[in-house]
Amino acid sequence: DIDRRERALLDAAQRYSFRGRIDTSAFSGPVFASARGSVVTDLRGNDYLDFNSGQMCAALGHNHPRVLAAIQEACETMLHAHSSHFNVKEIELAVRLGELLPDPLTRSLFGESGADANELALLLARIYTGGREVFSPHVSYHGLSASARSVTFAGWRRGHGSLPGDSHALIAPYCYRCPLAKSFPSCGFACLDTSFELVDAQSTDQPAAVITEPLFSAGGVIDPPQGWLARLRELCHERGMLLVVDDEQTGLGKLGTLFGFDDEGIVPDIVTLAKHLGGGVGISSVSTTDEIEDKVVGAGLTVTRSHSNDPLLCAAGVASIDIVVEEDVPAKARALGERLREHLTALSERFDLIGDIRGRGMLVGVELVRDRDTKEPAFAEGNAIGRQCFEAGLIFSVRRGGSVLRFVPPSTTTLSQVDQAMETFAKVLEEVSTAS
Ligand code: PMP
Protein backbone atom coordinates (compact mmCIF):
# COMPACT_ATOMS: atom_id res chain seq x y z
CA ASP A 1 0.00 0.00 0.00
CA ILE A 2 0.90 3.68 -0.18
CA ASP A 3 2.55 3.90 3.27
CA ARG A 4 4.84 1.03 2.44
CA ARG A 5 5.67 2.41 -1.01
CA GLU A 6 6.52 5.84 0.39
CA ARG A 7 8.60 4.32 3.20
CA ALA A 8 10.50 2.14 0.71
CA LEU A 9 11.26 5.12 -1.55
CA LEU A 10 12.45 7.32 1.31
CA ASP A 11 14.58 4.48 2.69
CA ALA A 12 16.08 4.06 -0.77
CA ALA A 13 16.78 7.82 -0.92
CA GLN A 14 18.51 7.61 2.48
CA ARG A 15 20.70 4.86 1.16
CA TYR A 16 21.34 5.88 -2.47
CA SER A 17 20.85 9.65 -2.84
CA PHE A 18 23.42 12.34 -2.12
CA ARG A 19 22.63 13.74 1.29
CA GLY A 20 24.01 17.26 0.90
CA ARG A 21 20.70 18.95 0.13
CA ILE A 22 19.45 22.44 0.98
CA ASP A 23 16.58 20.93 2.92
CA THR A 24 17.61 17.74 4.66
CA SER A 25 14.04 17.28 5.92
CA ALA A 26 13.32 16.12 2.35
CA PHE A 27 14.38 12.66 3.53
CA SER A 28 11.26 12.43 5.66
CA GLY A 29 8.96 13.17 2.74
CA PRO A 30 6.71 13.93 1.03
CA VAL A 31 7.65 12.36 -2.29
CA PHE A 32 6.19 14.31 -5.19
CA ALA A 33 4.57 12.26 -7.91
CA SER A 34 2.76 14.61 -10.31
CA ALA A 35 2.09 18.26 -11.05
CA ARG A 36 -0.25 20.40 -13.10
CA GLY A 37 -0.54 24.17 -13.30
CA SER A 38 0.03 25.64 -9.83
CA VAL A 39 -0.46 22.39 -7.91
CA VAL A 40 1.96 19.58 -7.13
CA THR A 41 0.73 16.28 -5.74
CA ASP A 42 2.55 13.80 -3.56
CA LEU A 43 2.49 10.04 -3.69
CA ARG A 44 -0.34 9.95 -1.14
CA GLY A 45 -2.50 12.20 -3.30
CA ASN A 46 -2.08 15.34 -1.17
CA ASP A 47 -2.14 18.57 -3.20
CA TYR A 48 0.15 21.52 -2.51
CA LEU A 49 -0.15 25.02 -3.93
CA ASP A 50 3.31 25.62 -5.35
CA PHE A 51 4.20 29.24 -4.55
CA ASN A 52 7.82 28.35 -5.13
CA SER A 53 7.09 27.62 -8.83
CA GLY A 54 9.02 24.35 -8.63
CA GLN A 55 12.00 26.42 -7.37
CA MET A 56 11.24 28.85 -10.19
CA CYS A 57 11.37 26.60 -13.26
CA ALA A 58 7.59 26.11 -13.38
CA ALA A 59 6.74 29.81 -13.35
CA LEU A 60 4.54 29.28 -16.43
CA GLY A 61 2.75 26.45 -14.62
CA HIS A 62 3.73 22.83 -14.23
CA ASN A 63 3.28 20.66 -17.34
CA HIS A 64 1.96 23.49 -19.46
CA PRO A 65 0.02 21.85 -22.33
CA ARG A 66 1.89 23.90 -24.91
CA VAL A 67 5.27 22.80 -23.59
CA LEU A 68 4.06 19.19 -23.48
CA ALA A 69 2.86 19.41 -27.10
CA ALA A 70 6.21 20.85 -28.24
CA ILE A 71 8.12 18.12 -26.41
CA GLN A 72 5.79 15.49 -27.82
CA GLU A 73 6.46 16.73 -31.33
CA ALA A 74 10.21 16.57 -30.70
CA CYS A 75 9.76 13.02 -29.39
CA GLU A 76 8.16 12.08 -32.67
CA THR A 77 10.68 13.84 -34.90
CA MET A 78 14.09 14.24 -33.23
CA LEU A 79 15.17 14.35 -29.57
CA HIS A 80 18.80 15.03 -30.18
CA ALA A 81 20.57 16.32 -33.27
CA HIS A 82 24.19 16.97 -34.13
CA SER A 83 25.71 19.45 -31.73
CA SER A 84 27.97 20.77 -34.51
CA HIS A 85 25.16 21.28 -37.06
CA PHE A 86 22.04 23.37 -36.96
CA ASN A 87 18.61 21.91 -36.44
CA VAL A 88 15.22 23.50 -37.03
CA LYS A 89 14.30 24.06 -33.37
CA GLU A 90 17.65 25.53 -32.43
CA ILE A 91 17.35 28.19 -35.12
CA GLU A 92 13.73 28.87 -34.18
CA LEU A 93 14.72 29.49 -30.57
CA ALA A 94 17.59 31.81 -31.53
CA VAL A 95 15.20 33.81 -33.73
CA ARG A 96 12.52 34.00 -30.99
CA LEU A 97 15.07 35.32 -28.50
CA GLY A 98 16.64 37.74 -30.97
CA GLU A 99 13.22 39.17 -31.78
CA LEU A 100 12.13 39.36 -28.15
CA LEU A 101 15.24 40.93 -26.63
CA PRO A 102 15.89 44.64 -27.14
CA ASP A 103 18.43 45.63 -29.79
CA PRO A 104 21.33 45.12 -30.05
CA LEU A 105 21.03 41.80 -28.16
CA THR A 106 20.49 39.67 -31.24
CA ARG A 107 22.93 36.75 -30.89
CA SER A 108 22.23 33.78 -28.66
CA LEU A 109 23.85 30.53 -27.68
CA PHE A 110 22.46 27.90 -25.38
CA GLY A 111 23.35 25.94 -22.28
CA GLU A 112 21.57 23.38 -20.15
CA SER A 113 21.39 25.11 -16.77
CA GLY A 114 21.51 28.54 -15.23
CA ALA A 115 25.07 28.10 -14.03
CA ASP A 116 26.08 26.95 -17.47
CA ALA A 117 24.79 30.15 -19.12
CA ASN A 118 26.47 32.39 -16.54
CA GLU A 119 29.72 30.48 -16.97
CA LEU A 120 29.57 31.23 -20.71
CA ALA A 121 28.57 34.86 -20.13
CA LEU A 122 31.59 35.45 -17.92
CA LEU A 123 33.82 33.72 -20.45
CA LEU A 124 32.55 36.05 -23.21
CA ALA A 125 33.13 39.09 -20.98
CA ARG A 126 36.65 37.99 -20.17
CA ILE A 127 37.58 37.34 -23.78
CA TYR A 128 35.95 40.57 -25.00
CA THR A 129 37.60 42.84 -22.42
CA GLY A 130 40.83 40.89 -22.11
CA GLY A 131 40.32 41.26 -18.35
CA ARG A 132 39.95 38.75 -15.53
CA GLU A 133 38.21 40.17 -12.46
CA VAL A 134 34.46 39.72 -12.14
CA PHE A 135 32.21 41.20 -9.48
CA SER A 136 28.70 40.77 -8.16
CA PRO A 137 26.64 42.16 -5.25
CA HIS A 138 27.02 40.29 -1.97
CA VAL A 139 23.51 38.77 -2.01
CA SER A 140 23.86 37.28 -5.52
CA TYR A 141 23.17 33.75 -6.69
CA HIS A 142 24.49 32.70 -10.09
CA GLY A 143 24.93 28.93 -9.85
CA LEU A 144 27.36 26.36 -8.60
CA SER A 145 29.83 25.77 -11.45
CA ALA A 146 33.32 27.24 -10.94
CA SER A 147 33.00 30.80 -12.27
CA ALA A 148 29.28 31.10 -11.47
CA ARG A 149 29.93 29.97 -7.90
CA SER A 150 32.80 32.44 -7.59
CA VAL A 151 30.26 35.27 -7.93
CA THR A 152 27.60 33.57 -5.78
CA PHE A 153 27.54 35.12 -2.33
CA ALA A 154 24.05 34.24 -1.09
CA GLY A 155 25.24 31.15 0.81
CA TRP A 156 25.94 27.70 -0.60
CA ARG A 157 29.70 28.20 -0.78
CA ARG A 158 30.50 26.13 2.28
CA GLY A 159 31.96 22.75 1.45
CA HIS A 160 32.81 23.79 -2.10
CA GLY A 161 36.53 24.22 -1.52
CA SER A 162 38.73 26.96 -2.91
CA LEU A 163 37.48 29.37 -5.54
CA PRO A 164 39.22 31.40 -8.27
CA GLY A 165 40.87 34.50 -6.80
CA ASP A 166 39.63 36.90 -9.48
CA SER A 167 36.06 37.35 -8.27
CA HIS A 168 34.87 39.77 -5.60
CA ALA A 169 31.70 40.99 -3.92
CA LEU A 170 30.13 44.43 -4.25
CA ILE A 171 27.88 46.03 -1.63
CA ALA A 172 24.31 45.09 -2.51
CA PRO A 173 21.47 47.66 -2.49
CA TYR A 174 19.74 46.02 0.48
CA CYS A 175 17.82 49.14 1.45
CA TYR A 176 15.81 47.60 4.32
CA ARG A 177 19.13 46.92 6.04
CA CYS A 178 21.45 49.33 4.26
CA PRO A 179 25.03 48.11 4.83
CA LEU A 180 26.09 51.77 4.89
CA ALA A 181 23.23 52.79 7.23
CA LYS A 182 21.93 55.33 4.72
CA SER A 183 18.55 55.69 3.11
CA PHE A 184 17.34 56.10 -0.43
CA PRO A 185 17.21 58.49 -2.27
CA SER A 186 19.38 60.81 -0.18
CA CYS A 187 22.16 58.16 -0.26
CA GLY A 188 22.72 58.90 -3.98
CA PHE A 189 23.61 55.21 -4.50
CA ALA A 190 26.51 55.41 -2.04
CA CYS A 191 26.65 51.60 -2.15
CA LEU A 192 27.66 51.80 -5.80
CA ASP A 193 30.32 54.47 -5.19
CA THR A 194 31.85 52.42 -2.38
CA SER A 195 31.53 49.24 -4.44
CA PHE A 196 33.47 50.76 -7.31
CA GLU A 197 36.20 51.97 -4.95
CA LEU A 198 36.48 48.26 -4.15
CA VAL A 199 36.44 47.34 -7.85
CA ASP A 200 39.31 49.72 -8.52
CA ALA A 201 41.21 48.58 -5.45
CA GLN A 202 40.85 44.89 -6.29
CA SER A 203 41.54 45.02 -10.01
CA THR A 204 44.95 44.30 -11.39
CA ASP A 205 44.64 45.69 -14.88
CA GLN A 206 41.39 45.56 -16.84
CA PRO A 207 38.42 44.25 -14.82
CA ALA A 208 36.07 42.17 -16.99
CA ALA A 209 32.50 42.47 -15.78
CA VAL A 210 29.87 42.91 -13.17
CA ILE A 211 27.21 40.22 -13.16
CA THR A 212 23.96 40.96 -11.37
CA GLU A 213 20.37 39.91 -10.98
CA PRO A 214 17.93 42.79 -11.57
CA LEU A 215 16.26 41.72 -8.29
CA PHE A 216 18.14 39.42 -5.92
CA SER A 217 15.83 36.48 -5.54
CA ALA A 218 17.72 33.70 -3.76
CA GLY A 219 19.50 36.29 -1.60
CA GLY A 220 16.20 37.42 -0.05
CA VAL A 221 14.01 39.14 -2.66
CA ILE A 222 16.12 42.28 -2.46
CA ASP A 223 14.81 44.79 -4.98
CA PRO A 224 17.21 47.61 -5.89
CA PRO A 225 15.72 51.10 -6.03
CA GLN A 226 14.90 52.56 -9.44
CA GLY A 227 18.03 53.81 -11.17
CA TRP A 228 20.46 51.45 -9.48
CA LEU A 229 20.97 49.18 -12.49
CA ALA A 230 21.34 52.09 -14.90
CA ARG A 231 23.98 53.70 -12.66
CA LEU A 232 25.74 50.34 -12.33
CA ARG A 233 25.93 50.10 -16.11
CA GLU A 234 27.50 53.57 -16.35
CA LEU A 235 30.12 52.73 -13.74
CA CYS A 236 31.00 49.51 -15.60
CA HIS A 237 31.28 51.21 -18.95
CA GLU A 238 33.46 54.01 -17.54
CA ARG A 239 35.97 51.26 -16.80
CA GLY A 240 35.60 49.30 -20.03
CA MET A 241 33.79 46.52 -18.12
CA LEU A 242 30.70 44.70 -19.38
CA LEU A 243 27.40 44.51 -17.54
CA VAL A 244 26.00 40.98 -17.49
CA VAL A 245 22.38 40.69 -16.32
CA ASP A 246 21.42 37.28 -14.97
CA ASP A 247 17.70 37.37 -15.76
CA GLU A 248 17.27 33.64 -15.21
CA GLN A 249 14.73 33.98 -12.41
CA THR A 250 13.47 37.44 -13.14
CA GLY A 251 13.12 37.49 -16.94
CA LEU A 252 10.35 36.40 -19.29
CA GLY A 253 7.53 38.13 -17.47
CA LYS A 254 7.94 37.24 -13.81
CA LEU A 255 8.50 40.81 -12.60
CA GLY A 256 5.57 42.16 -14.60
CA THR A 257 7.80 43.24 -17.45
CA LEU A 258 9.22 41.11 -20.26
CA PHE A 259 12.75 41.43 -18.86
CA GLY A 260 13.92 42.34 -15.37
CA PHE A 261 15.87 45.35 -16.64
CA ASP A 262 13.03 46.90 -18.68
CA ASP A 263 12.05 49.39 -15.96
CA GLU A 264 15.55 50.86 -16.04
CA GLY A 265 15.48 51.79 -19.72
CA ILE A 266 18.88 50.20 -20.31
CA VAL A 267 20.17 47.29 -22.35
CA PRO A 268 22.88 45.12 -20.74
CA ASP A 269 25.85 43.84 -22.74
CA ILE A 270 24.99 40.22 -22.04
CA VAL A 271 21.75 38.67 -20.72
CA THR A 272 21.28 35.11 -19.46
CA LEU A 273 17.94 33.29 -19.23
CA ALA A 274 17.14 29.86 -17.75
CA LYS A 275 14.56 28.33 -15.38
CA HIS A 276 11.14 28.91 -16.99
CA LEU A 277 12.81 29.43 -20.40
CA GLY A 278 12.55 25.64 -20.56
CA GLY A 279 9.04 25.43 -19.11
CA GLY A 280 10.33 22.60 -16.91
CA VAL A 281 13.18 21.15 -18.97
CA GLY A 282 16.80 22.23 -18.69
CA ILE A 283 17.76 24.90 -21.18
CA SER A 284 19.42 28.28 -20.74
CA SER A 285 20.54 31.04 -23.06
CA VAL A 286 23.24 33.67 -23.34
CA SER A 287 22.41 36.63 -25.57
CA THR A 288 24.74 39.39 -26.63
CA THR A 289 25.52 41.93 -29.32
CA ASP A 290 27.02 41.40 -32.77
CA GLU A 291 30.02 43.40 -31.69
CA ILE A 292 30.82 41.21 -28.69
CA GLU A 293 30.09 38.01 -30.60
CA ASP A 294 32.31 39.15 -33.45
CA LYS A 295 35.26 39.77 -31.19
CA VAL A 296 35.06 36.54 -29.19
CA VAL A 297 34.54 34.42 -32.30
CA GLY A 298 37.43 36.30 -33.93
CA ALA A 299 39.54 35.38 -30.92
CA GLY A 300 38.90 31.72 -31.73
CA LEU A 301 36.15 30.85 -29.23
CA THR A 302 34.03 27.84 -30.16
CA VAL A 303 31.34 26.45 -27.90
CA THR A 304 30.05 22.95 -28.46
CA ARG A 305 27.99 21.03 -25.95
CA SER A 306 26.48 17.58 -26.39
CA HIS A 307 22.97 18.68 -25.50
CA SER A 308 22.56 22.44 -25.60
CA ASN A 309 20.99 22.53 -29.08
CA ASP A 310 18.83 19.42 -28.58
CA PRO A 311 15.53 19.86 -30.44
CA LEU A 312 13.75 18.57 -27.32
CA LEU A 313 15.10 21.43 -25.19
CA CYS A 314 14.89 24.11 -27.88
CA ALA A 315 11.28 23.16 -28.68
CA ALA A 316 10.40 23.68 -25.00
CA GLY A 317 12.17 27.05 -25.16
CA VAL A 318 10.17 28.15 -28.20
CA ALA A 319 6.90 27.05 -26.57
CA SER A 320 7.75 28.92 -23.36
CA ILE A 321 8.44 32.16 -25.19
CA ASP A 322 5.17 31.77 -27.08
CA ILE A 323 3.34 31.30 -23.77
CA VAL A 324 4.98 34.41 -22.27
CA VAL A 325 3.97 36.54 -25.25
CA GLU A 326 0.59 35.10 -26.21
CA GLU A 327 -0.73 34.60 -22.66
CA ASP A 328 0.68 37.98 -21.62
CA VAL A 329 2.54 36.57 -18.64
CA PRO A 330 3.82 40.04 -17.58
CA ALA A 331 0.19 41.19 -17.10
CA LYS A 332 -0.66 38.02 -15.19
CA ALA A 333 2.39 38.54 -12.98
CA ARG A 334 1.26 42.08 -12.17
CA ALA A 335 -2.25 40.95 -11.28
CA LEU A 336 -1.04 38.09 -9.08
CA GLY A 337 1.49 40.35 -7.36
CA GLU A 338 -1.12 42.99 -6.70
CA ARG A 339 -3.47 40.47 -5.04
CA LEU A 340 -0.63 39.00 -2.97
CA ARG A 341 0.44 42.44 -1.80
CA GLU A 342 -3.12 43.41 -0.83
CA HIS A 343 -3.28 40.38 1.45
CA LEU A 344 0.22 40.86 2.83
CA THR A 345 -0.35 44.55 3.53
CA ALA A 346 -3.54 43.73 5.42
CA LEU A 347 -1.69 41.01 7.37
CA SER A 348 1.11 43.44 8.26
CA GLU A 349 -1.49 45.52 10.10
CA ARG A 350 -2.37 42.48 12.22
CA PHE A 351 1.08 40.97 12.71
CA ASP A 352 4.12 42.95 13.88
CA LEU A 353 6.26 40.07 12.70
CA ILE A 354 6.00 41.44 9.15
CA GLY A 355 8.76 44.01 8.84
CA ASP A 356 8.93 44.55 5.10
CA ILE A 357 7.03 43.55 1.96
CA ARG A 358 8.89 43.85 -1.31
CA GLY A 359 9.40 42.50 -4.80
CA ARG A 360 7.89 43.03 -8.22
CA GLY A 361 5.27 41.22 -10.26
CA MET A 362 4.72 37.67 -9.07
CA LEU A 363 8.01 37.56 -7.13
CA VAL A 364 7.14 38.85 -3.67
CA GLY A 365 9.13 38.73 -0.45
CA VAL A 366 8.26 39.27 3.19
CA GLU A 367 10.95 39.99 5.75
CA LEU A 368 10.11 38.93 9.29
CA VAL A 369 11.40 40.77 12.35
CA ARG A 370 11.03 40.31 16.10
CA ASP A 371 10.91 44.05 16.58
CA ARG A 372 10.11 46.62 13.92
CA ASP A 373 12.51 49.19 15.43
CA THR A 374 15.57 47.03 16.01
CA LYS A 375 14.71 44.84 12.98
CA GLU A 376 16.01 41.77 14.79
CA PRO A 377 15.52 38.99 12.19
CA ALA A 378 12.86 36.40 13.08
CA PHE A 379 14.77 33.32 11.89
CA ALA A 380 13.06 30.69 14.03
CA GLU A 381 9.60 32.11 13.36
CA GLY A 382 10.19 32.17 9.58
CA ASN A 383 11.40 28.58 9.55
CA ALA A 384 8.41 27.48 11.63
CA ILE A 385 6.00 29.33 9.32
CA GLY A 386 7.58 27.74 6.24
CA ARG A 387 7.32 24.26 7.76
CA GLN A 388 3.76 24.63 9.01
CA CYS A 389 2.50 26.14 5.73
CA PHE A 390 4.10 23.25 3.86
CA GLU A 391 2.29 20.78 6.10
CA ALA A 392 -0.93 22.69 5.42
CA GLY A 393 -0.41 22.39 1.66
CA LEU A 394 1.29 25.67 0.75
CA ILE A 395 4.84 25.66 -0.58
CA PHE A 396 7.05 28.74 -0.64
CA SER A 397 10.72 29.34 -0.10
CA VAL A 398 12.39 30.50 3.12
CA ARG A 399 15.54 32.58 2.55
CA ARG A 400 18.26 34.36 4.55
CA GLY A 401 18.28 31.67 7.21
CA GLY A 402 14.55 31.95 7.85
CA SER A 403 13.82 35.67 8.02
CA VAL A 404 12.61 36.14 4.44
CA LEU A 405 9.67 34.30 2.91
CA ARG A 406 9.53 34.26 -0.89
CA PHE A 407 6.21 33.81 -2.69
CA VAL A 408 6.25 33.06 -6.42
CA PRO A 409 2.94 31.69 -7.70
CA PRO A 410 3.15 30.32 -11.25
CA SER A 411 1.37 32.43 -13.88
CA THR A 412 -1.38 29.78 -14.03
CA THR A 413 -2.44 30.63 -10.46
CA THR A 414 -5.96 32.00 -10.08
CA LEU A 415 -6.79 34.90 -7.79
CA SER A 416 -8.85 32.54 -5.65
CA GLN A 417 -5.80 30.27 -5.28
CA VAL A 418 -3.91 33.35 -4.05
CA ASP A 419 -6.72 34.00 -1.54
CA GLN A 420 -6.60 30.37 -0.44
CA ALA A 421 -2.81 30.50 0.01
CA MET A 422 -3.03 33.70 2.03
CA GLU A 423 -5.72 32.19 4.23
CA THR A 424 -3.37 29.32 5.08
CA PHE A 425 -0.54 31.79 5.63
CA ALA A 426 -2.67 33.97 7.93
CA LYS A 427 -3.67 30.98 10.07
CA VAL A 428 -0.08 29.86 10.47
CA LEU A 429 1.09 33.44 11.19
CA GLU A 430 -1.52 33.60 13.95
CA GLU A 431 -0.30 30.31 15.48
CA VAL A 432 3.38 31.23 15.31
CA SER A 433 2.79 34.78 16.56
CA THR A 434 0.89 33.59 19.64
CA ALA A 435 3.43 30.83 20.33
CA SER A 436 6.44 33.20 20.30
N1 PMP B 1 21.08 32.44 -11.53
C1 PMP B 1 20.01 32.67 -10.74
C2 PMP B 1 19.51 34.08 -10.61
C3 PMP B 1 19.40 31.62 -10.06
O1 PMP B 1 18.37 31.87 -9.26
C4 PMP B 1 19.88 30.30 -10.23
C5 PMP B 1 19.23 29.10 -9.56
N2 PMP B 1 18.57 29.34 -8.39
C6 PMP B 1 20.98 30.10 -11.04
C7 PMP B 1 21.55 31.18 -11.68
C8 PMP B 1 21.57 28.73 -11.23
O2 PMP B 1 20.79 27.98 -12.06
P1 PMP B 1 21.02 26.39 -12.15
O3 PMP B 1 20.66 25.83 -10.82
O4 PMP B 1 20.08 25.97 -13.25
O5 PMP B 1 22.44 26.18 -12.50
What does this structure look like?
GO terms for molecular function: transaminase activity. There is one protein chain. With 436 residues, this protein is an alpha/beta fold. The chain folds into 2 domains: 141 residues, Alpha-Beta Complex (Aspartate Aminotransferase, domain 1), CATH 3.90.1150; 262 residues, Type I PLP-dependent aspartate aminotransferase-like (Major domain) (Aspartate Aminotransferase, domain 2, 3-Layer(aba) Sandwich). Helix content is 38%, strand content 16%. It has 12 helices and 15 strands. The strands form 3 sheets. The protein has a 7-stranded mixed β-sheet, sandwiched between helices. α3 runs parallel beside α9 and α11 packs across α12. The model has no long low-confidence stretch (mean pLDDT 96). Bound molecules: 4'-deoxy-4'-aminopyridoxal-5'-phosphate. 4'-deoxy-4'-aminopyridoxal-5'-phosphate (PMP) binds next to α4. 4'-deoxy-4'-aminopyridoxal-5'-phosphate binds next to α4.
Write a brief caption for the model.
Helices cover 38% and strands 16% of the residues. By secondary structure, it is of the alpha/beta class. It has helices at 2-16, 65-77, 88-100, 114-129, 146-150, 190-202, 228-238, 290-298, 311-326, 329-350, 379-391, 415-435, and strands at 32-36, 39-42, 47-50, 105-111, 134-137, 167-170, 209-212, 242-246, 270-273, 284-289, 354-360, 363-368, 394-395, 397-399, 404-407.
H-E order: HEEEHHEHEHEHEHEEEHHHEEHEEEH
**How many E-type strands?**
15
Unreliable stretches covering 5 or more consecutive residues: none
> Please, what is the oligomeric state?
single chain
Q: Report the C-alpha radius of gyration, rounded.
A: 22 Å
